[in-house]
Structures are given as C-alpha cells and as structure tokens.
Amino acid sequence: MSPARARTSRSDIIGAARDLLEDGGLDAVSMAAVAKRVGVRPPSLYKHFADRDALIGAVATQAAVDLGDACADAVEAAGPDPTARLQALAVAYRTRAVAHPRATALLFAGIAPAAMPTPESQAEAARPVLDVVASIVGPAQALSAARVLTAFAHGFTSMETAGAFRFGGDVDEAYRFGISVLLAGLEGEGATSARS
Amino acid sequence: MSPARARTSRSDIIGAARDLLEDGGLDAVSMAAVAKRVGVRPPSLYKHFADRDALIGAVATQAAVDLGDACADAVEAAGPDPTARLQALAVAYRTRAVAHPRATALLFAGIAPAAMPTPESQAEAARPVLDVVASIVGPAQALSAARVLTAFAHGFTSMETAGAFRFGGDVDEAYRFGISVLLAGLEGEGATSARS
DNA sequence: ACCTGAACACCGTTCAAGT
DNA sequence: ACCTGAACACCGTTCAAGT
C-alpha cells in the first residue's frame, strides 16, 4: 500500500559519516558502519548516494562550506583593518582545521576526482581569502597571494594534525610567526607593485 | 631439504607498492596487487612486513628520505648565497612533490601512527631546511621559520596535486610569488630580531 | 519510494603444510 | 627461512522482493 517512508536522510548520513571519519579515519567510514549509525541496512544508503565515493565527496563538500563560513564570520567580526582581518582569517582557519582535522584533510587529498567539491562551493569558500588579500596587495596579485596564504594555513595545519611537528618548540608561536612573516612580505610586495 | 630461497625482498616490495600508489592511489595498494607485481602470493608478504600498514609506512619513510636527499642536493648545488639556497630548496621540494605526488602526500596524512617515519629519518630530511633558514633568520627563530617554509611548500604542492587550484591563473607564478614574499618577510624578521 | 535479505566478487590476515 | 593453498571475517555493491 503506502510506499516505505524514509527512515534517514542525506544530511543524517553525511553527519554519521563525518563523525565516523573524525574518530576513526577513512577506513572507519564503511557503508556498514554508516548504515548502523543511522539505523538502516547498508543497501539503503544507495538510495541516497551513488556509492561510497559520492558519500565521502559529500562529507568533503560540507567541510568546505563549514570552513568557508567560519572564515567569513571571523573576517566580518574583525572590523575594517586589513591586517586584523587577515590575522583573524588565518586563526579561524587553523581553529576549524584543528577541530575537524580529518574532514579538513579530505579537502586537499584522497578524494575520488568525481566526488570533489563543486567549483561553485569552492569559489564560495575561497571568497573571504580573496577579498582580504586584495585589500593588501591589490587585485592584480590577489589570486597568487590568496594561494600563498591558503597554502601556508593548509600546509601548517595539515602538518600539525598529522603529528609532523615532533621536534618540540612552540607550535602556536610558529603559526603567529608565519602570519607576521607573510604579512610583512605581502605589504612589501603590495608597496612594490603600487610603486611600479 | 634446502629451505625456500627468497623470491622477493623488502625493497622490491616497497618499490612495487610505491608504483601502485602513484598510479592508482592508496586503494590500488592491495596486498594482492603488490604480491602479483613482485611475483609471489599475498601471504608471503607477511614474512617481510607485519601488515599492510607497515608496508605503507615503509613507502612513506622511503619517500621522506628521497625528498630530503633531493632537497639537500639542490641546496648544495646552489652555492653559498642564502637567498639562492632557499629558492633552490623550495623549487626542489616542489619538483619532487609534483613528480611523486601520492607518496609525498603520504608523509603528511593518512598513515597509521604506528607506521609513521621514525623521528630520526624525519630529522635527517628536515636538516637542509633548518640549515638554510638559520642562515637567514638566525638560530633562535630557525625552527619556526623552517616550519613556516615547509608548511608553505607542502601546502602549496599538496593543493596543486590535489587539483585545488581551479580558478585559472599562473600556478608557477604563484609559487615564485610565495617564495619571494616569504624571503622578504623572513629577512625583515631576521633584521628585527638582530636589532632587538 | 524507500527498505530489506541474500548473494557476488573482493580484501586483509592467519595457519598448517610444503620445500 | 620463505613460500603456498585453503580458510575466515569483512567489505562495497547489486538485485529481486517486500511495504
């Protein structure tokens, strides 16, 4: 008679997969484990996602959106000063990346190409960085500067969460040092290009 | 009578695993595929490695050693000027990382903790960076500066190989821009700390 | 329209048996 | 001392059948 009503949803499934990912790594995100967590049998998941790669891709896309939102909020809250905005952005990126390390790592590695976040959602997430650096180095070098800043923030936090900083020292200090080095360098480059 | 002679070796197996990794991703590094490539049956691999994680870890350690060697050679070949040495180091890092993207990515993500490269091999690989930056910012800030530089190089190349630079623009240019921004910033910071 | 049990090909790993 | 075939528990995925 009445068709079977949905016992779970796309967002439930994504949430369950994200939780399993964060506390067990990619291997822990099995279709069996996800299904058990949302209360259905594994085959039912295929009514919501084409396959496991598509589910992992959806987790990555969600992480990109959340990361972009967190950065945008932080920039907004930092007031009008470009330097303060860039610092707030870098700090917010690290805070989010360290709080959800494996979902964030998913953004830059280990995803089936077909499941990568859409260019649109990536552009949305990249907006705040582009805006902030443009106000420092100007529009002509904004794209390169955004790439450099993102590379630093992503690289640093991915090394941090992978446990690559094993020689002691103050990791917080190193991050602050990096931000101030980049700021000093960007302001120099911005001045250079403004002068020429 | 005579005990069975070895039909393969640790380094053969690591090489086969690395090749499979580079052109098929981690999923392609199955014990079955590795065994077939070296000409034995899967169970035999367990005489050489405790389990799959240990094999993946050995691939990662090998990649760390190769990367460190490539960087050290490049620094050596660049002559005495600290700026030239740092530029050569950054370029060599990227060249190697882009040529062997998945093995390099392994260094910073997705490895079982027990299988991570030993601190000794990591220290060996990190030596050239530490030496070069020490000559620019001085010993007190060498560790932080090395972390910042490595974070940039690793972050940039990992984004590049993951296909994260999708808004056009000149990727080579962005990398050069990053190096010059970091150099300008580091020289400023070095001067600052020398002054104080 | 979504859910289920049964089934398939595959995987990592163990182990007793071969040489 | 290393190799092998057989076996185990597990995984992703498909599909016909249920409601």
| Radius of gyration of chain A using CA atoms only | 20 Å
Classify the oligomer.
Answer: homodimer
Structural class of chain A: mainly alpha
Q: Compute the number of helices of chain A.
A: 9
CATH topology of the largest domain in chain A: Tetracycline Repressor, domain 2
> Whole-Å distance between the termini of chain A?
76 Å
The CATH class assignment of the largest domain in chain A is Mainly Alpha
What kind of sheet is the major sheet of chain A?
none
User: Biggest interface, and residues per chain?
Assistant: A-B, 51 and 51 residues
Number of strands of chain A: 0
| Name of the CATH architecture of the largest domain in chain A | Orthogonal Bundle
Q: What's the mean pLDDT score of chain A?
A: 91
Structure description:
Two copies of one chain form a homodimer. With 196 residues, the first copy, chain A, is mainly α. Chain A folds into two domains: 1-49, Arc Repressor Mutant, subunit A (Orthogonal Bundle); 64-195, Tetracycline Repressor, domain 2 (Orthogonal Bundle). Helix content of chain A is 71%, strand content 0%. In chain A, helix 4 runs antiparallel to helix 5. Chain A is elongated, with a radius of gyration of 20 Å. The first copy, chain A, binds a DNA duplex (19 and 19 nucleotides) through helix 3.
Question: How would you briefly describe this protein structure?
Answer:
The structure is a homodimer of 196-residue chains. With 196 residues, chain A is mainly α. Chain A contains nine helices and no strands.
